[in-house]
């Protein structure tokens, strides 16, 4: 039987050591390609060999890796270095599909910033210290993104996710109800005076025994995963054309607390069916092969509830936690390959949301102290921390072209930060939507300048750009 690292238990000690060293060298080489540091010890977390039937991993509570590396400069990436500054190399292209002209009107400020600068707003202004007043900002923003559809529920709506094809979106609620709605074939921003109800193509009452906290589609769009405070992960085989379930639900019970977030791994390396889930309880991240119905790994290291997950590059995971850290994990090792704290200035804050831009270079976090952090993954340093909101930032997402950062907050507002330009300087921020209660989640459409927002006001709203 092969043990961790590809070592056969029948091999002699010397042969086992050689095989282990070869495995670690290969892992370090692969991590080097991503420019992410790894501890030379290469300690691994236990691999689960049982099916996900409630058994938990026996991983250590201590993460095996906390090292950092600063890779060589790569001018082909979205972030480029110029002396001590970091700039975004994606220029403004007026009229492009990813261009929002109104943000160009917002002042960027000319105050330069150091490597670990923190841009904080003055007291009473959570908009990022823009010169435009709050009243002017709100009035202006109402003309930029307009509400097209509003879905009403009987309880708070926690989770939304667009289908990879863009024609559907899933909604999970505290009412235990799972819905799949149709994205409009034609969107007319001028007809926004009376938002329409979306067409519900699929609905299942009591999909879970508890509130649905998170939803995620597989990259192929044929699996729909949900997590709940009933401690179960469910995976529903789904046909996007007929909007019907194509088989019985898969249920996984490896968690001993609320599942706060889940995500599928993308890319051919994972086969599109590797599910990542995490939350409260033992603070582990679990990986599951949904095709085989089998647990793969239990990744330990966080010391607080895990609130957010994000996957990229086929094997990489970012996790945000109440322990005030973000951890990067590589499933090829599998273990933590970097720890990023939020205590650069002050005491830090719980990380409620994480996202990585399409280049894999820039991390964005949303934190419970109303701040967002931009972090250069390959450079291993914080670019900027700023306060776009006045309460917990529960959702952060990059637009498909990574030109804009969408944020949703418990202050009931949805904002967009313009990332085109020098990321170390003051960033233009605009209000683009608002709910009557806490905003819980926001997600960009896969192609259009549209986004979904879910709220404690018991609604899900579809917003589109009124350009």
In short:
The protein has 467 residues and is mainly β. The chain is built from three helices and 32 strands. Residues 53-64 have a biased composition (Low complexity).
Distance between the first and last residues' Cα = 61 Å
Strand order in space, largest sheet: 3-25-24-23-22
Number of E-type strands: 32
* Helix-residue proportion: under 10%
Uncertain spans, ≥5 residues at pLDDT below 50? 1-11, 19-78, 80-85, 88-97, 102-142
Q: Per DSSP, what share of the residues sits in E-state strands of 2 or more residues?
A: 35-45%
Structure classification: mainly beta
Number of helices: 3
Which of globular, elongated, flat, extended, rod-shaped describes the shape? globular
Taking Cα atoms only, what radius of gyration do you get, to the nearest Å?
22 Å
How confident overall, as mean pLDDT?
78
Main sheet: strands, sense, barrel: 5 strands, mixed
Structure description:
The protein has 467 residues and is mainly beta. The protein has a domain at 90-151 and 358-467. The protein contains three helices and 32 strands. It has helices spanning 13-33, 101-104, 134-141; strands spanning 79-82, 85-88, 118-119, 145-152, 157-162, 168-173, 178-182, 200-204, 212-217, 223-228, 233-239, 244-245, 250-252, 259-264, 274-279, 285-289, 294-299, 306-312, 316-321, 325-330, 335-341, 351-356, 362-367, 372-376, 381-386, 393-398, 404-409, 413-418, 429-434, 439-444, 450-455, 459-465. It has a five-stranded mixed β-sheet with strand order 3-25-24-23-22, with no helix packed on it. Strands 9, 10, 11, 12 and 13 form a five-stranded antiparallel β-sheet that branches. A hairpin with a 5-residue loop joins β26 and β27. The longest helix has 21 residues, at 13-33. The protein is globular and about 45 Å long. Mean pLDDT is 78; it is low at 1-11, 19-78, 80-85, 88-97 and 102-142.
